[in-house]
Write a structure and sequence with these properties.
single chain, 295 residues, alpha+beta, twelve-stranded mixed beta sheet, elongated
């Protein structure tokens, strides 16, 4: 039982670590999420200023996209879809390391002209269009959106994963929300080595604009992975300590069995001693037996 407990607990711990690490890797270790709390609708940084920040720092920033989670009713025919609707820019696919299986992604012309186009995840494509969604239409808040692209499967192609999603131009999403303020931006550093520099550049720009660091939050995926690594190490230490208790209990059980064995084998021990065996020889015999049982 003690050995089984150790194997099961450490296996579960390793499985948890692998799952968490794979989820972070899907998000991209070079990804930087910027959350804007702001100081009011008239005093928030604009997407044009964020795009300018990307253009000014090509050595450390590879891509940037606004990200707007929109509240809307999405329908396909008479069926209402329960899905995630996100307004994005043309570089969102690069920032999130997504891949297309059909068609194209949202382009600059779509956001500039607020065109009613959308890109859907593989789950929506399979469940609502039997895999033939490209060129079909979706109704979003009563407006017809043409499907111009289908994303490749990201996770497990279920309703709870990232494959159950619909992407539209961020300008359309802000109109749907009735709020022109964008509170989230996604940046991608050019490499892991420039991640810290990209974060510093973004924070410097935001601090200069807002005059303090209370109005924004910049989250680095690589830093979060390091933090999660420390947490995972602590969790694994606790799990190993729990497993060690199981081993200790198992060891006590073996010790008691060997003590009983000594009591029940007094005749054998006496015969051995009468034939010249010393106490250390008998002790060695029982230690070897206990060790074999433990192994």
């Amino acid at each position: 039982i003690g050995v089984a407990a150790v194997i099961i607990i450490i296996s579960l711990g390793d499985g948890m670590n692998d799952m968490i690490n794979s989820e972070f890797e899907k998000m991209g270790t070079n990804l930087l999420q910027v959350q804007i709390m702001g100081r009011g609708s008239s005093q928030n940084i604009t997407e044009d200023e964020m795009y300018a920040l990307e253009d000014e720092n090509p050595d450390c920033i590879a891509a940037m996209s606004p990200s707007v989670s929109s509240m809307a009713t999405v329908k396909q025919g008479s069926e209402t879809l329960s899905t995630t609707l996100t307004g994005v820019g043309e570089e969102y696919i690069t920032a999130k390391s997504l891949e297309l299986s059909q068609g194209r992604f949202i382009q600059y012309i779509d956001t500039a002209r607020m065109q009613n186009v959308c890109v859907i995840g593989s789950y929506v494509n399979e469940e609502s269009f039997n895999g033939a969604g490209l060129g079909e239409t979706l109704s979003i808040n009563g407006n017809e959106y043409t499907i111009v692209g289908v994303l490749a499967e990201q996770a497990d192609n279920t309703s709870y994963g990232g494959d159950n999603s619909v992407y539209i131009p961020y300008t359309n999403a802000t109109r749907l929300n009735g709020n022109s303020v964008i509170s989230q931006y996604l940046f991608t550093a050019t490499s892991e080595d420039t991640n810290a520099r990209a974060k510093a550049v973004i924070e410097s720009k935001l601090e200069q604009f807002y005059g303090g660091d209370d109005y924004y939050l910049v989250i680095s995926m690589s830093e979060m992975m390091d933090m999660m690594g420390n947490i995972q190490g602590t969790v694994m230490t606790v799990l190993v300590a729990i497993a060690a208790i199981s081993l200790l209990v198992g060891g006590i059980g073996i010790m008691n069995i060997m003590l009983v064995s000594v009591t029940e084998r007094t005749r054998e021990i006496g015969i051995r001693k009468s034939l010249g065996a010393k106490g250390k020889d008998i002790r060695r015999q029982f230690i070897i037996e206990a060790g074999t049982t433990s192994v």
